[in-house]
């Protein structure tokens, strides 16, 4: 049910704090827990194109969240955009079935969906205000998601790159398999030896439409996972424009080739964050008045160069530079800092456009028990120890023990890395 009044305001603020403090892998679960006392729901789905590796973030009924598709969410978001404001108890296809949903969109374009929301009969004006307030909470969460992606934390980059690699492989295999099948079907149906012209024509049109739809799905996934290099660089210019506008800094841009290879989404996001961080690190030096930013692509790597006209005393010991190096390393890239006293400092970064192809070990090779495999699957879904304990009917301490063993056996240094390896 939707309660006629908010839960204790302290509980709401604590819940919001947990959501905004969580990692991108945990956001959906924390948001679902925060909203549960206000709106009951069977599943929560976030759809945001800010996250190229994981545009869907889910929590709740696995029968729904394991089946929800980008195509379904596109339809739901189009309907929500056409009718601004909260939409309650409207029918929608999600998780391969028609269910009632509640939806909100944010100024960032992100979509929030609650499935099977329990709406009281004859909602009052006060309850309507509550629903609008839920939308305001969602706006804050959606903005936080954008900021986290912009910061491009190393754990997010590791997970995003692993997921992007697996998704690209799956799409390619699916597209090839269905294309071959449909092309064979078309060849048979177009054969002069086939009878019943009307049936042949109908089947031909059906197969042709199926091929068009399949290609549309493939193109949609690619649009989520890739960004043209020219557009990515233009977004970088927009990010740095306020820095030049409200200071005496002269930011010069050397455009990348307009026909360069499209960038994987996580590379585009990380590259912009790296440039922003490098520029801020450079201008922390004294007497820096000009910074030049250059992007190029050799077909396999995005090449970034940032140079200033300052005193030339930047070093890799600077904390902000160490943070940049961690982001670059998460993408299997390289970074070099060269400073010449009196002539300025330069930061050179190379980021591979293709994710590493080293094969992942099988669970059997890791020596995992049946219980550890169950825990690994839950960690990969973004579940926290409390959720793992509740799902498997074990204590939270036992869940922590299993996670620690998994980290040791797999050789991962964090839960995020463990989840990425599992995927």
Describe the fold and architecture.
- The chain is α+β, with helices and mostly antiparallel strands and 423 residues long.
- It folds into four domains: 9-151, Beta-Lactamase (2-Layer Sandwich), CATH 3.30.450.270; 154-225; 229-352, Histidine kinase-like ATPase, C-terminal domain (Heat Shock Protein 90, 2-Layer Sandwich); 363-422, Winged helix-like DNA-binding domain superfamily/Winged helix DNA-binding domain (Arc Repressor Mutant, subunit A, Orthogonal Bundle), CATH 1.10.10.10.
- It has 15 helices and twelve strands.
- It has helices at 9-21, 27-35, 62-65, 70-82, 125-151, 154-189, 197-225, 229-245, 265-283, 319-330, 363-366, 370-380, 385-392, 396-410, 415-422; strands at 43-47, 56-60, 87-93, 98-105, 111-115, 226-227, 250-254, 263-264, 290-297, 301-308, 334-340, 344-352.
- The strands form three sheets. A five-stranded antiparallel sheet has the order 2-1-5-4-3, with helices on both faces.
- Helix 6 runs parallel beside helix 10 (319-330) and helix 8 (229-245) runs parallel beside helix 9.
- The chain starts with 8 loop residues before the first helix and ends with a helix.
- Mean pLDDT is 79; it is low at 1-5 and 357-362.
